[in-house]
Write a structure and sequence with these properties.
alpha/beta; Rossmann fold; binds nicotinamide-adenine-dinucleotide
Length: 486
Amino acid sequence: MAKAKTGLAPASGGNVSTRPAPPAPRPAIRVQSESLHDGEGSPGTSGQPVAKPTHLPSSVFKELEIVRDPSNLFHQTIEQVLISAQLVGLKHHQQIILAQPKNEIMVHFPVLMDDGHHKLFKGYRVQHNNALGPYKGGLRYHPEVSLDDVKALAVLMTMKCSLVRVPFGGGKGGVKCNPRELSRDELMRVTRRFCSAISNQIGPNYDIPAPDVGTNAQVMAWFADTYAQMTPELNRNDTLAVITGKPVEMGGSLGREKATGQGLVDILKEMLPELGIDITKMTYSLIGFGNVGGWTGRLLSKCGAKLVAVLDHTGAINNDQGIDTAALSVHVDKTSGVAGFRGAEAIDEIQFYSRPVDVFIPAALEQMITPKQAKLINAKVVAEGANAPTTPEGDAVLLQRGIEILPAILCNAGGVTVSYFEWVQNKSSVYWTADVVDERLNNHMVMAARRTKLARHKYECDMRTAAYCAAIEQIGKVYDLRGVFP
Ligand code: NAD
Protein backbone atom coordinates (compact mmCIF):
# COMPACT_ATOMS: atom_id res chain seq x y z
CA MET A 1 0.00 0.00 0.00
CA ALA A 2 1.43 3.35 -1.01
CA LYS A 3 1.89 5.59 1.99
CA ALA A 4 2.73 9.06 0.79
CA LYS A 5 1.70 11.36 3.61
CA THR A 6 -1.74 12.11 2.29
CA GLY A 7 -1.62 15.24 0.35
CA LEU A 8 1.94 16.05 0.62
CA ALA A 9 4.59 13.77 1.97
CA PRO A 10 7.01 11.39 0.39
CA ALA A 11 5.70 7.96 -0.48
CA SER A 12 7.04 5.47 1.96
CA GLY A 13 9.35 3.27 -0.02
CA GLY A 14 9.89 0.82 2.82
CA ASN A 15 13.44 -0.26 3.45
CA VAL A 16 15.05 0.90 0.25
CA SER A 17 18.10 -1.16 -0.48
CA THR A 18 17.64 -2.03 -4.14
CA ARG A 19 20.60 -0.96 -6.24
CA PRO A 20 19.73 2.00 -8.45
CA ALA A 21 19.86 1.67 -12.22
CA PRO A 22 23.10 2.88 -13.79
CA PRO A 23 23.01 6.52 -14.90
CA ALA A 24 21.46 6.97 -18.31
CA PRO A 25 23.32 9.25 -20.74
CA ARG A 26 21.90 12.76 -20.55
CA PRO A 27 19.54 13.14 -23.48
CA ALA A 28 19.69 16.31 -25.48
CA ILE A 29 16.60 18.18 -26.61
CA ARG A 30 17.22 20.13 -29.77
CA VAL A 31 15.80 23.59 -30.09
CA GLN A 32 13.83 24.37 -33.21
CA SER A 33 13.68 28.14 -32.96
CA GLU A 34 12.45 28.49 -36.52
CA SER A 35 9.33 26.48 -35.71
CA LEU A 36 8.11 28.77 -32.93
CA HIS A 37 5.71 30.94 -34.88
CA ASP A 38 3.72 32.47 -32.09
CA GLY A 39 4.36 36.02 -33.12
CA GLU A 40 5.03 36.93 -29.51
CA GLY A 41 8.63 38.04 -29.82
CA SER A 42 10.13 34.61 -29.30
CA PRO A 43 12.23 34.37 -26.19
CA GLY A 44 15.63 32.88 -26.41
CA THR A 45 17.28 33.24 -29.75
CA SER A 46 20.77 31.91 -29.38
CA GLY A 47 23.59 34.40 -28.94
CA GLN A 48 21.61 36.70 -26.66
CA PRO A 49 23.34 37.48 -23.39
CA VAL A 50 22.18 35.45 -20.42
CA ALA A 51 20.82 37.62 -17.58
CA LYS A 52 22.84 37.26 -14.42
CA PRO A 53 21.02 36.94 -11.09
CA THR A 54 21.20 40.17 -9.10
CA HIS A 55 19.66 39.07 -5.79
CA LEU A 56 19.85 35.55 -4.42
CA PRO A 57 16.47 33.98 -3.52
CA SER A 58 17.64 34.02 0.10
CA SER A 59 17.84 37.83 0.06
CA VAL A 60 14.23 38.05 -1.13
CA PHE A 61 13.22 35.59 1.59
CA LYS A 62 14.99 37.79 4.12
CA GLU A 63 13.41 40.97 2.78
CA LEU A 64 9.94 39.40 3.03
CA GLU A 65 10.73 37.89 6.42
CA ILE A 66 10.10 34.35 5.21
CA VAL A 67 12.00 31.86 7.37
CA ARG A 68 12.93 29.25 4.83
CA ASP A 69 11.92 25.69 5.68
CA PRO A 70 13.36 23.26 3.09
CA SER A 71 10.45 20.84 3.51
CA ASN A 72 7.80 23.55 2.95
CA LEU A 73 6.30 23.21 -0.54
CA PHE A 74 5.52 26.93 -0.77
CA HIS A 75 9.10 27.87 0.08
CA GLN A 76 10.45 25.32 -2.41
CA THR A 77 8.16 26.67 -5.11
CA ILE A 78 9.02 30.31 -4.47
CA GLU A 79 12.71 29.47 -4.47
CA GLN A 80 12.38 27.84 -7.90
CA VAL A 81 10.43 30.86 -9.17
CA LEU A 82 13.06 33.28 -7.82
CA ILE A 83 15.97 31.32 -9.31
CA SER A 84 14.28 31.45 -12.70
CA ALA A 85 13.19 35.08 -12.22
CA GLN A 86 16.77 36.07 -11.55
CA LEU A 87 17.99 34.11 -14.55
CA VAL A 88 15.64 36.05 -16.84
CA GLY A 89 16.56 39.33 -15.13
CA LEU A 90 13.08 40.01 -13.73
CA LYS A 91 12.98 43.34 -11.94
CA HIS A 92 13.35 43.20 -8.18
CA HIS A 93 9.93 44.66 -7.41
CA GLN A 94 8.34 42.06 -9.72
CA GLN A 95 10.21 39.31 -7.92
CA ILE A 96 8.86 40.34 -4.54
CA ILE A 97 5.34 40.58 -5.98
CA LEU A 98 5.60 36.98 -7.22
CA ALA A 99 7.11 35.77 -3.95
CA GLN A 100 3.83 36.20 -2.04
CA PRO A 101 0.16 35.63 -2.98
CA LYS A 102 -2.03 38.71 -3.35
CA ASN A 103 -4.79 37.27 -1.15
CA GLU A 104 -5.00 34.36 1.27
CA ILE A 105 -8.57 33.56 2.27
CA MET A 106 -9.31 31.12 5.07
CA VAL A 107 -12.86 30.24 6.12
CA HIS A 108 -14.52 28.00 8.68
CA PHE A 109 -18.04 26.77 8.08
CA PRO A 110 -20.40 24.33 9.79
CA VAL A 111 -22.00 21.48 7.87
CA LEU A 112 -24.91 19.29 8.93
CA MET A 113 -23.76 15.66 8.82
CA ASP A 114 -26.07 12.72 8.05
CA ASP A 115 -26.18 11.64 11.70
CA GLY A 116 -27.61 15.03 12.72
CA HIS A 117 -24.50 16.63 14.25
CA HIS A 118 -22.73 19.69 12.86
CA LYS A 119 -19.07 19.53 11.89
CA LEU A 120 -16.84 22.57 11.36
CA PHE A 121 -14.77 22.52 8.16
CA LYS A 122 -11.80 24.67 7.15
CA GLY A 123 -11.55 25.99 3.58
CA TYR A 124 -8.96 27.98 1.67
CA ARG A 125 -8.79 30.13 -1.42
CA VAL A 126 -5.44 31.63 -2.33
CA GLN A 127 -5.18 34.21 -5.11
CA HIS A 128 -1.54 34.40 -6.07
CA ASN A 129 -1.30 36.73 -9.05
CA ASN A 130 -3.67 38.26 -11.60
CA ALA A 131 -1.29 40.19 -13.83
CA LEU A 132 -2.33 38.11 -16.84
CA GLY A 133 -6.06 37.78 -16.06
CA PRO A 134 -8.56 36.47 -13.49
CA TYR A 135 -7.25 34.08 -10.84
CA LYS A 136 -7.67 30.47 -11.93
CA GLY A 137 -7.07 27.19 -10.15
CA GLY A 138 -8.57 24.03 -8.75
CA LEU A 139 -10.34 23.13 -5.52
CA ARG A 140 -8.86 20.23 -3.61
CA TYR A 141 -10.74 18.18 -1.02
CA HIS A 142 -8.17 16.31 1.02
CA PRO A 143 -7.51 15.67 4.72
CA GLU A 144 -4.03 17.24 4.53
CA VAL A 145 -4.87 20.43 2.65
CA SER A 146 -2.98 23.29 4.32
CA LEU A 147 -2.51 26.99 3.68
CA ASP A 148 1.11 26.75 2.58
CA ASP A 149 0.37 23.87 0.20
CA VAL A 150 -2.50 25.80 -1.36
CA LYS A 151 -0.20 28.83 -1.68
CA ALA A 152 2.38 26.70 -3.50
CA LEU A 153 -0.23 25.27 -5.85
CA ALA A 154 -1.54 28.79 -6.57
CA VAL A 155 1.97 29.89 -7.56
CA LEU A 156 2.21 26.92 -9.90
CA MET A 157 -1.05 28.00 -11.53
CA THR A 158 0.35 31.48 -12.20
CA MET A 159 3.37 29.89 -13.88
CA LYS A 160 1.34 27.34 -15.82
CA CYS A 161 -1.18 29.81 -17.22
CA SER A 162 1.62 32.05 -18.36
CA LEU A 163 3.58 29.21 -19.95
CA VAL A 164 0.60 28.03 -22.06
CA ARG A 165 -0.48 31.62 -22.68
CA VAL A 166 -4.02 31.45 -21.37
CA PRO A 167 -5.18 34.85 -20.05
CA PHE A 168 -5.47 33.85 -16.42
CA GLY A 169 -3.54 34.36 -13.22
CA GLY A 170 -3.00 31.77 -10.54
CA GLY A 171 -5.21 30.66 -7.68
CA LYS A 172 -5.95 27.51 -5.73
CA GLY A 173 -8.34 26.42 -3.02
CA GLY A 174 -9.46 23.51 -1.00
CA VAL A 175 -11.33 22.09 1.92
CA LYS A 176 -9.65 20.05 4.62
CA CYS A 177 -11.79 16.91 4.50
CA ASN A 178 -11.72 13.32 3.32
CA PRO A 179 -14.26 13.11 0.48
CA ARG A 180 -14.06 9.30 0.57
CA GLU A 181 -15.55 9.41 4.08
CA LEU A 182 -18.40 11.77 3.19
CA SER A 183 -21.77 10.61 1.88
CA ARG A 184 -22.97 12.16 -1.38
CA ASP A 185 -25.31 14.48 0.55
CA GLU A 186 -22.55 15.53 2.94
CA LEU A 187 -20.21 16.21 0.01
CA MET A 188 -22.90 18.39 -1.55
CA ARG A 189 -23.48 20.32 1.69
CA VAL A 190 -19.73 20.85 2.21
CA THR A 191 -19.48 22.18 -1.34
CA ARG A 192 -22.48 24.49 -1.04
CA ARG A 193 -21.35 25.90 2.32
CA PHE A 194 -17.79 26.38 1.06
CA CYS A 195 -19.06 28.16 -2.04
CA SER A 196 -21.30 30.44 0.01
CA ALA A 197 -18.39 31.20 2.38
CA ILE A 198 -16.13 32.42 -0.44
CA SER A 199 -18.79 33.60 -2.93
CA ASN A 200 -17.97 37.28 -2.41
CA GLN A 201 -14.29 36.64 -3.07
CA ILE A 202 -14.64 34.88 -6.46
CA GLY A 203 -16.53 35.56 -9.69
CA PRO A 204 -16.63 34.79 -13.43
CA ASN A 205 -14.35 37.77 -14.18
CA TYR A 206 -12.30 37.66 -11.01
CA ASP A 207 -11.49 34.18 -9.71
CA ILE A 208 -12.59 30.96 -11.39
CA PRO A 209 -12.11 27.64 -9.56
CA ALA A 210 -11.96 24.16 -11.17
CA PRO A 211 -11.62 20.49 -10.12
CA ASP A 212 -8.51 19.05 -8.49
CA VAL A 213 -7.74 16.06 -6.28
CA GLY A 214 -10.90 14.88 -4.52
CA THR A 215 -13.33 16.98 -6.57
CA ASN A 216 -15.05 16.26 -9.87
CA ALA A 217 -17.64 17.53 -12.35
CA GLN A 218 -20.50 16.85 -9.91
CA VAL A 219 -18.83 19.01 -7.25
CA MET A 220 -18.38 21.75 -9.87
CA ALA A 221 -22.11 21.51 -10.73
CA TRP A 222 -23.13 22.00 -7.07
CA PHE A 223 -20.67 24.86 -6.77
CA ALA A 224 -22.00 26.62 -9.89
CA ASP A 225 -25.60 26.20 -8.74
CA THR A 226 -24.82 27.60 -5.28
CA TYR A 227 -22.95 30.56 -6.76
CA ALA A 228 -26.00 31.32 -8.95
CA GLN A 229 -28.21 31.32 -5.84
CA MET A 230 -25.79 33.60 -3.98
CA THR A 231 -25.62 36.19 -6.80
CA PRO A 232 -29.21 36.92 -7.92
CA GLU A 233 -28.00 40.23 -9.34
CA LEU A 234 -26.08 38.36 -12.06
CA ASN A 235 -27.64 36.81 -15.15
CA ARG A 236 -27.94 33.12 -14.28
CA ASN A 237 -26.26 32.11 -17.50
CA ASP A 238 -23.29 34.37 -16.78
CA THR A 239 -22.73 32.70 -13.44
CA LEU A 240 -21.86 29.42 -15.18
CA ALA A 241 -18.46 30.89 -16.00
CA VAL A 242 -17.58 31.15 -12.29
CA ILE A 243 -16.23 27.62 -12.32
CA THR A 244 -14.89 25.21 -14.95
CA GLY A 245 -14.78 21.43 -15.19
CA LYS A 246 -18.60 21.32 -15.05
CA PRO A 247 -20.59 18.47 -16.58
CA VAL A 248 -21.12 18.99 -20.33
CA GLU A 249 -24.90 19.17 -19.78
CA MET A 250 -24.35 22.15 -17.48
CA GLY A 251 -22.02 24.30 -19.55
CA GLY A 252 -18.94 22.11 -19.38
CA SER A 253 -16.65 21.73 -22.38
CA LEU A 254 -16.26 18.60 -24.41
CA GLY A 255 -12.77 17.28 -23.80
CA ARG A 256 -12.35 18.89 -20.33
CA GLU A 257 -12.42 15.64 -18.39
CA LYS A 258 -9.57 14.12 -20.37
CA ALA A 259 -7.77 17.44 -20.96
CA THR A 260 -4.88 17.09 -18.52
CA GLY A 261 -4.09 13.57 -19.78
CA GLN A 262 -4.51 14.70 -23.39
CA GLY A 263 -2.18 17.64 -22.83
CA LEU A 264 0.43 15.36 -21.29
CA VAL A 265 0.24 13.06 -24.30
CA ASP A 266 0.59 16.09 -26.61
CA ILE A 267 3.76 17.11 -24.73
CA LEU A 268 5.20 13.59 -24.94
CA LYS A 269 4.55 13.50 -28.70
CA GLU A 270 6.39 16.80 -29.07
CA MET A 271 9.31 16.02 -26.76
CA LEU A 272 10.02 12.28 -26.94
CA PRO A 273 11.28 11.94 -30.53
CA GLU A 274 14.19 14.26 -29.70
CA LEU A 275 14.97 12.09 -26.70
CA GLY A 276 15.13 9.01 -28.91
CA ILE A 277 11.86 7.49 -27.64
CA ASP A 278 9.17 6.24 -30.00
CA ILE A 279 5.81 6.82 -28.28
CA THR A 280 4.20 3.99 -30.25
CA LYS A 281 6.63 1.47 -28.76
CA MET A 282 7.53 2.98 -25.42
CA THR A 283 7.00 1.43 -22.01
CA TYR A 284 5.91 3.54 -19.05
CA SER A 285 4.72 3.39 -15.48
CA LEU A 286 2.25 5.58 -13.63
CA ILE A 287 1.75 6.79 -10.07
CA GLY A 288 -1.97 7.43 -9.74
CA PHE A 289 -4.83 6.19 -11.86
CA GLY A 290 -7.33 8.97 -11.11
CA ASN A 291 -8.35 11.66 -13.56
CA VAL A 292 -4.85 12.52 -14.80
CA GLY A 293 -3.26 9.06 -14.55
CA GLY A 294 -6.31 7.21 -15.88
CA TRP A 295 -6.78 9.42 -18.93
CA THR A 296 -3.06 9.50 -19.65
CA GLY A 297 -3.03 5.70 -19.53
CA ARG A 298 -6.03 5.24 -21.82
CA LEU A 299 -4.79 7.83 -24.33
CA LEU A 300 -1.25 6.41 -24.40
CA SER A 301 -2.69 2.93 -25.02
CA LYS A 302 -4.34 4.32 -28.16
CA CYS A 303 -0.88 5.49 -29.29
CA GLY A 304 0.50 1.95 -28.82
CA ALA A 305 2.53 2.66 -25.66
CA LYS A 306 2.70 -0.12 -23.07
CA LEU A 307 1.80 0.52 -19.40
CA VAL A 308 3.81 -1.92 -17.30
CA ALA A 309 3.33 -0.74 -13.70
CA VAL A 310 0.95 1.41 -11.63
CA LEU A 311 1.10 2.58 -8.01
CA ASP A 312 -1.78 4.23 -6.19
CA HIS A 313 -3.03 4.65 -2.62
CA THR A 314 -4.16 1.00 -2.56
CA GLY A 315 -0.94 -0.65 -3.77
CA ALA A 316 1.20 -1.35 -6.83
CA ILE A 317 0.72 -3.69 -9.82
CA ASN A 318 2.89 -4.89 -12.70
CA ASN A 319 2.49 -6.70 -16.01
CA ASP A 320 5.47 -6.65 -18.38
CA GLN A 321 3.19 -7.72 -21.25
CA GLY A 322 1.20 -4.51 -20.81
CA ILE A 323 -1.70 -3.56 -18.55
CA ASP A 324 -5.12 -3.26 -20.21
CA THR A 325 -5.89 0.38 -19.32
CA ALA A 326 -9.60 0.16 -20.20
CA ALA A 327 -10.08 -2.88 -17.97
CA LEU A 328 -8.05 -1.21 -15.19
CA SER A 329 -10.35 1.85 -15.39
CA VAL A 330 -13.40 -0.34 -14.90
CA HIS A 331 -11.70 -2.00 -11.92
CA VAL A 332 -10.71 1.36 -10.35
CA ASP A 333 -14.24 2.75 -10.85
CA LYS A 334 -15.62 -0.24 -8.97
CA THR A 335 -13.06 -0.57 -6.19
CA SER A 336 -11.49 2.94 -6.08
CA GLY A 337 -7.93 1.61 -6.49
CA VAL A 338 -5.62 -0.58 -8.58
CA ALA A 339 -5.10 -3.24 -5.88
CA GLY A 340 -6.69 -6.58 -6.75
CA PHE A 341 -6.69 -5.97 -10.52
CA ARG A 342 -6.65 -9.37 -12.16
CA GLY A 343 -4.70 -8.38 -15.27
CA ALA A 344 -1.50 -7.76 -13.32
CA GLU A 345 0.41 -9.02 -10.30
CA ALA A 346 0.86 -7.18 -7.03
CA ILE A 347 4.35 -5.76 -6.43
CA ASP A 348 5.84 -3.65 -3.66
CA GLU A 349 6.89 -0.02 -3.92
CA ILE A 350 10.58 -0.75 -4.41
CA GLN A 351 9.78 -3.08 -7.30
CA PHE A 352 7.44 -0.44 -8.72
CA TYR A 353 9.98 2.37 -8.70
CA SER A 354 12.81 0.21 -10.05
CA ARG A 355 10.82 -1.26 -12.96
CA PRO A 356 12.75 -0.40 -16.17
CA VAL A 357 10.63 1.84 -18.41
CA ASP A 358 11.19 4.51 -21.01
CA VAL A 359 8.95 7.08 -19.30
CA PHE A 360 7.94 7.37 -15.64
CA ILE A 361 4.77 9.43 -15.02
CA PRO A 362 3.89 10.59 -11.50
CA ALA A 363 0.20 11.59 -11.63
CA ALA A 364 -0.91 11.45 -7.99
CA LEU A 365 0.21 13.77 -5.20
CA GLU A 366 2.98 16.23 -4.42
CA GLN A 367 6.43 15.38 -3.10
CA MET A 368 6.32 11.66 -3.83
CA ILE A 369 9.72 11.49 -5.53
CA THR A 370 12.33 12.14 -2.88
CA PRO A 371 15.98 11.07 -3.31
CA LYS A 372 14.94 7.60 -2.13
CA GLN A 373 12.54 7.09 -5.04
CA ALA A 374 14.73 9.09 -7.46
CA LYS A 375 17.62 6.67 -6.90
CA LEU A 376 15.35 3.77 -7.82
CA ILE A 377 13.61 5.17 -10.89
CA ASN A 378 14.84 3.30 -13.93
CA ALA A 379 13.61 5.51 -16.78
CA LYS A 380 14.98 7.84 -19.43
CA VAL A 381 12.32 10.50 -18.83
CA VAL A 382 10.12 11.58 -15.92
CA ALA A 383 7.00 13.38 -17.19
CA GLU A 384 5.24 15.10 -14.29
CA GLY A 385 1.46 14.75 -14.52
CA ALA A 386 0.94 15.73 -10.87
CA ASN A 387 1.77 19.14 -9.46
CA ALA A 388 5.18 19.26 -7.74
CA PRO A 389 5.60 15.47 -7.53
CA THR A 390 9.39 15.75 -7.15
CA THR A 391 11.17 17.32 -4.16
CA PRO A 392 14.13 19.60 -4.95
CA GLU A 393 16.44 16.90 -3.58
CA GLY A 394 14.72 14.24 -5.68
CA ASP A 395 15.05 16.53 -8.67
CA ALA A 396 18.79 16.85 -8.10
CA VAL A 397 19.22 13.07 -7.98
CA LEU A 398 17.26 12.57 -11.22
CA LEU A 399 19.26 15.27 -13.01
CA GLN A 400 22.52 13.90 -11.70
CA ARG A 401 21.54 10.47 -13.05
CA GLY A 402 20.87 11.98 -16.49
CA ILE A 403 17.12 11.46 -16.37
CA GLU A 404 15.24 14.13 -18.30
CA ILE A 405 12.43 15.78 -16.32
CA LEU A 406 9.50 17.24 -18.20
CA PRO A 407 8.10 19.61 -15.56
CA ALA A 408 4.57 19.75 -14.23
CA ILE A 409 3.82 23.31 -15.29
CA LEU A 410 4.32 22.12 -18.85
CA CYS A 411 3.02 18.54 -18.73
CA ASN A 412 -0.22 19.12 -16.82
CA ALA A 413 -1.25 22.46 -18.32
CA GLY A 414 -3.84 20.81 -20.57
CA GLY A 415 -6.46 20.97 -17.81
CA VAL A 416 -6.32 24.72 -17.35
CA THR A 417 -6.12 25.23 -21.10
CA VAL A 418 -9.43 23.46 -21.71
CA SER A 419 -10.84 25.18 -18.60
CA TYR A 420 -10.04 28.42 -20.42
CA PHE A 421 -11.88 27.06 -23.49
CA GLU A 422 -14.87 26.21 -21.26
CA TRP A 423 -14.89 29.75 -19.84
CA VAL A 424 -14.74 31.22 -23.37
CA GLN A 425 -17.62 28.97 -24.47
CA ASN A 426 -19.71 29.94 -21.42
CA LYS A 427 -19.12 33.62 -22.07
CA SER A 428 -19.94 33.42 -25.77
CA SER A 429 -22.68 30.74 -25.53
CA VAL A 430 -21.06 29.12 -28.56
CA TYR A 431 -20.01 25.52 -27.94
CA TRP A 432 -17.18 23.76 -29.75
CA THR A 433 -16.89 20.21 -31.06
CA ALA A 434 -14.51 17.75 -29.38
CA ASP A 435 -12.22 17.92 -32.42
CA VAL A 436 -11.96 21.71 -32.20
CA VAL A 437 -11.12 21.46 -28.48
CA ASP A 438 -8.43 18.83 -29.13
CA GLU A 439 -6.88 20.78 -31.97
CA ARG A 440 -6.74 24.06 -30.03
CA LEU A 441 -5.41 22.28 -26.95
CA ASN A 442 -2.67 20.73 -29.06
CA ASN A 443 -1.67 24.16 -30.39
CA HIS A 444 -1.28 25.55 -26.86
CA MET A 445 0.67 22.52 -25.63
CA VAL A 446 3.05 22.35 -28.59
CA MET A 447 3.80 26.08 -28.37
CA ALA A 448 4.43 25.80 -24.62
CA ALA A 449 6.83 22.90 -25.24
CA ARG A 450 8.71 24.91 -27.85
CA ARG A 451 8.89 27.96 -25.58
CA THR A 452 10.40 25.73 -22.91
CA LYS A 453 12.98 24.31 -25.31
CA LEU A 454 13.93 27.79 -26.45
CA ALA A 455 14.32 29.00 -22.87
CA ARG A 456 16.46 25.99 -22.08
CA HIS A 457 18.74 26.88 -24.94
CA LYS A 458 18.82 30.57 -24.03
CA TYR A 459 19.46 30.14 -20.32
CA GLU A 460 21.43 26.89 -20.57
CA CYS A 461 19.47 25.32 -17.77
CA ASP A 462 17.41 22.22 -17.01
CA MET A 463 13.92 21.82 -18.42
CA ARG A 464 12.13 22.78 -15.19
CA THR A 465 14.02 26.05 -14.82
CA ALA A 466 13.46 26.71 -18.53
CA ALA A 467 9.68 26.28 -18.23
CA TYR A 468 9.62 28.76 -15.33
CA CYS A 469 11.83 31.17 -17.27
CA ALA A 470 9.47 31.06 -20.27
CA ALA A 471 6.50 31.72 -17.97
CA ILE A 472 8.21 34.51 -16.02
CA GLU A 473 9.43 36.33 -19.12
CA GLN A 474 5.80 36.81 -20.13
CA ILE A 475 4.71 38.04 -16.69
CA GLY A 476 7.67 40.44 -16.59
CA LYS A 477 6.69 41.89 -19.98
CA VAL A 478 3.14 42.47 -18.75
CA TYR A 479 4.32 44.13 -15.51
CA ASP A 480 6.66 46.35 -17.54
CA LEU A 481 3.69 47.43 -19.65
CA ARG A 482 1.23 47.89 -16.79
CA GLY A 483 3.57 49.36 -14.23
CA VAL A 484 2.62 49.22 -10.57
CA PHE A 485 -0.40 51.21 -9.35
CA PRO A 486 -0.53 54.10 -8.47
P1 NAD B 1 -7.57 12.20 -8.55
O1 NAD B 1 -8.12 12.43 -7.20
O2 NAD B 1 -8.48 11.92 -9.68
O3 NAD B 1 -6.49 11.02 -8.51
C1 NAD B 1 -5.48 11.01 -7.54
C2 NAD B 1 -4.72 9.70 -7.68
O4 NAD B 1 -3.66 9.71 -6.73
C3 NAD B 1 -5.55 8.46 -7.39
O5 NAD B 1 -5.25 7.45 -8.33
C4 NAD B 1 -5.05 8.02 -6.01
O6 NAD B 1 -5.13 6.62 -5.81
C5 NAD B 1 -3.61 8.44 -6.10
N1 NAD B 1 -3.02 8.57 -4.77
C6 NAD B 1 -3.54 9.19 -3.69
N2 NAD B 1 -2.73 9.00 -2.62
C7 NAD B 1 -1.69 8.27 -3.06
C8 NAD B 1 -0.55 7.72 -2.44
N3 NAD B 1 -0.31 7.94 -1.17
N4 NAD B 1 0.30 6.97 -3.19
C9 NAD B 1 0.06 6.75 -4.49
N5 NAD B 1 -1.02 7.23 -5.13
C10 NAD B 1 -1.88 7.98 -4.42
O7 NAD B 1 -6.66 13.49 -8.84
P2 NAD B 1 -6.21 14.05 -10.26
O8 NAD B 1 -7.20 15.08 -10.68
O9 NAD B 1 -5.87 12.93 -11.17
O10 NAD B 1 -4.90 14.86 -9.85
C11 NAD B 1 -3.63 14.21 -9.73
C12 NAD B 1 -2.55 15.28 -9.74
O11 NAD B 1 -2.62 16.03 -10.95
C13 NAD B 1 -2.62 16.32 -8.62
O12 NAD B 1 -1.31 16.74 -8.32
C14 NAD B 1 -3.37 17.47 -9.26
O13 NAD B 1 -3.13 18.71 -8.63
C15 NAD B 1 -2.76 17.42 -10.65
N6 NAD B 1 -3.55 18.06 -11.70
C16 NAD B 1 -4.82 17.68 -11.96
C17 NAD B 1 -5.52 18.30 -12.98
C18 NAD B 1 -6.92 17.89 -13.36
O14 NAD B 1 -7.44 18.41 -14.36
N7 NAD B 1 -7.56 16.98 -12.64
C19 NAD B 1 -4.92 19.32 -13.72
C20 NAD B 1 -3.60 19.67 -13.45
C21 NAD B 1 -2.93 19.03 -12.43
